[in-house]
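Cross-posted from the bioinformatics board.
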Amino acid sequence: MSVQEILADENELTHLLGAQQAVVLSTRVRLARNLEGFPFPGWAKPAHRKEIAERCIEALTQLPRFRKSHVFKMGDLPDLDRAVLVERHLVSKELASGKSGAAVISRDQTCSVMVNEEDHLRIQVVKAGWHLRGTWNIAEQLDDAIGATLGIAFSDQLGFLTACPTNVGTGLRASAMVHLPGLCLAGHIEKVTRALSQDGLAVRGWLGEGTEAAGNIFQISNQQTLGLSEDAILRHLGGWVKTLVDQEWNARRKVAQEEGERFVDRLSRSLGLLRHARLLTSAESMNMLSHLRLACDMGCLPEERRHVVDRLMIEGQPAHVQARQGAELDSDGRDRRRATAVREALRDFPEVGSPTA
Amino acid sequence: MANPLKCSVCDAVATVHLTQIVQGKVTKVDFCEACAAKGGAGDAAVFKLADAVNAVTPAPAITCPQCGFTDVEFRRRGRLGCPSCWQVFGVALGGLLTKVQHEIQHVGRAPAGTIPVGQLRHRLLAAQQELTAAIAAEDYETAAKLRDEVARITTQLDTL
């Protein structure tokens, strides 16, 4: 079982032609669960952690959803492979940094379960585009299937018991990865972020907690997990994402109208630069690709090219670039390899035209 | 969600972490930037502050019989030791829970094959309120449906 297969296999986020949408890149649902009668991973002795991992992996790999799944034990993986999984959001940085964690990942990479992260089980489901109910339904089914074979720690008063008080109750974290170049260009992003935080939603960068919003991409998620039903949590997030999408479109149209030719020039320059650069840093390519995504959304480039942009955003990350090369590269080497991949992918892109959306 | 260590003085997020080894005895202490600056991080003064903090660290008042986790450990890590800790530290956690979650009663799903008591109680309360409102609005058709629902949930909860 190798991480190379993860890169090569057709999967939800980089290969699903047509599933990609303007503004919302992906929808994610995560459930924190623990086994009854075992200490949480952070307090468990190595022998306990090993037993927990064995039980969980055995139960998970028997589920239909995880037929022919990838099973990765963090202790067995080289640094680069673990970094690829983190960049794909298939495992967290915390899981990758420890030795006793493991991950079971479905063949299509939609479902992944982290074992021995902060909690015994972190069930995750991700879908390209905005599909909150569909994503939730899969997570719910998976949760029921897991609960039917493993005794899950639960109390009537506090719900699902987790290591950290910030997850107790539903253990549910639902999130949307949103691309907000319009609000960023219009200078409204701080105002929007503040409004979301005041209403109990967390706003983070592309790679989660403590990361910058490279490429104008933000992750919006609920914070409260206790005292609200799953349905209420999803409705709250869903309502805000809808508002955000509307506001983003208003901002895009306004900027495009006000800037006129300059708007098209800006997007066109990004395409030119990406097509001809010989060295591309991660941050630079993310910001230029953000312009191309905006161009696809607004009809300046054909919409069916959007999935190429999404794939380049994921595959342009440092560990991905090195894994493709099959070797560790220094900073210049990565920038050179990234530029080559981007150049090749964009070779037959048409010119940027005027917005139609 | 990653939970950062807390400052040993003021409970803010700790960004300065000190380890002192004196005659083989290891002492660890964490400070936020402000408290570290007060103590003069990086020189001898901060270790005096560390000594003072460690001297007042209370002995554990509560210990989980299941896993040996203590309240002192919880203050250090911000996470619990095992599912039973929730029962053991329940009262002590009450204040913290209202601070981070605003609520203290689960109203969501339950594990597969069990009755979602929290969800039922939540629905019961809502249905009772809706019933009162329906009666006040003289919407007797809705009220009748709600009365049946209230009765059904009450029976379900009583049989537990």
